[in-house]
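Working notes for the structural subgroup meeting. M.R. asked for a predicted model of this chain before we commit to crystallization trials. I am recording the input and output together here so anyone reviewing the notebook later can reproduce the run.

Input as submitted:
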Amino acid sequence: MANKVILGISAFYHDSAAAIISNGEIIAAAQEDRFTRVKHTAEFPTNAVQYCLREAGYTIDELDAVVFYDKPILKFERLLETYYAFAPKGLRQFLTSIPVWLREKMFLKKLLRDGLSDIQKYDKKKLKLYFPEHHLSHAASAFYPSPFEEAAILTIDGVGEWATASICIGKGNSIKKIKELRFPHSVGLLYSAFTYFLGFRVNSGEYKLMGLAPYGNPHAERTQKYVDLIKEHIVHIKDDGSIWLNQDYFNYATGLKMVDDQKWEKLFGFPKAIPDGDLDQKHCDLAHAIQQVTEEIILLMAKEAVAVTGSSNLCLAGGVALNCVANGKLIKEEFIDNLFIQPAAGDAGGALGGAQIVHYMYFGNERTVDSENDSMKGTYLGPYFSEKEVLQSLKRYKAVYEKVEPFESLAKKTADLLKNGNVVGWFQGRMEWGPRALGNRSILADARNEEMQKKLNLKIKYREGFRPFAPSVLAEDCNDYFEMDVPSPYMLLISDVQKSRRNDLPEGYHDMDLWTKLYFKRSDVPSITHLDFSARVQTVHEETNPRYWKLLKAFKELTGYSVLVNTSFNVRGEPIVCTPADAYKCFMRTEMDYLVVNDYILKKTDQPDWENKEKWMETFKKD
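Returned structure, recorded in token form:
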């Protein structure tokens, strides 16, 4: 068949994004918040669409289809039926939300057409709009880029139209839905409820809850008590992984809050945590308990997916697929032979999945599979900036810089800076797609430095001190550091640090307070070793990111270690940097020591004075 060019869009809820494919190949993809600097923005992705069109070299009139990632009419149906089922509860919320739905969501075609019109003129009569179901878009985003000819597909999130989880079978170019879990019963909403109760922001703080969980004492009576209370009062788990949530404890179906605060306080014995308030052991133990329950549910769902499809290849997508701890346990299960997780597993990834559905299932194009590699191109699908563009940005800020060539010299010099305890902003090539920085928009540091976690959290990222950091490691050396024998290029798997690298824990370690435990040196790579000796691993491959791979190689030659701390290039509440200007501003507003942009190195102490840092920190809402 003739080449088809398809633009996918997700918008109007959170994590607006755009993706474009040509003849089945993923050309470009980006989230809107990287351009607007408003984290998790729900606005129409004007900038992301412009970028995708520019990168692919097409106008809107040249597109064969534009695809929105879900069916708003079904969401409206769910809204009406939910309010009817719970009436008269939630009447005030119903009266508030229905006019918004009628004005915006019910006339989505017009919103999309108008959004595209703001980008460029086009023939509206020629434009073909498609609206696949939300969970089908998730399923497609995981299966079509995977290296599998056939696979079980499991999608889990908060809620799409009606579905909150689904099991599908993917074969060749087609996907067939087998079963689904329906609203209001949702693993994603269950996890978000605990995110809310522990003082974090819903739809952005779930990863904080996951990061807090290892601070819980798995051996404590209280932790097990919390697990029992959750299962007895809040969620009933069935053998196939489907769940039933007791709506007496929740408000999300008809109210403005996730849970009934008073009932949760009575059940667990303490009030909802205050955002940015003090966290103590009971909060950690509750985080551990819900993480344990969530892992149990995901494991049962995965078993069911493999059982009903007959395939031991498993693809994952949906926001819950970003739960790296659960993923790390899944990959060890004998019933799974191969696992692929869409790196942009949340709603942003739906833009790509929607485009792929139309390409393969509507237009009927054949799918070519590389059994060795996925087709995500390492997720390096965002904008690239030339030397000219970099220099324009640096000169605008009167920045002081040094060009270092060839790249081997740049890598060696950067490695030496890292070895000597410096924190380096690393800006290279095309921006990553998805929530993880994978070596192109990263802040890097020496994993051997036991003070580095504290320094990075408090002086660079300006975030909670308990937050963990992830390692990047040369793919070929991964097993030297971690108990992992599979690639993890997208930082979506948790693995344990090798026992030979661990230090013995002192007596009574699990009974110590959070901060005492945090600052105990647990291994020879302490800045990436979590309290339970785990780490969220990124394996770096020469084929997909040769520059980052060469940096790690240079660091190994200097130190004998081929692992670095890799955290996203941003501060708390800010999206990951997109442009050289974003990178320079973030560099200057934090206590980073050096910035490397393409072939240029910038030293903090050489730069001109910058604006008041405290004033700038008010720019971004804390997430």
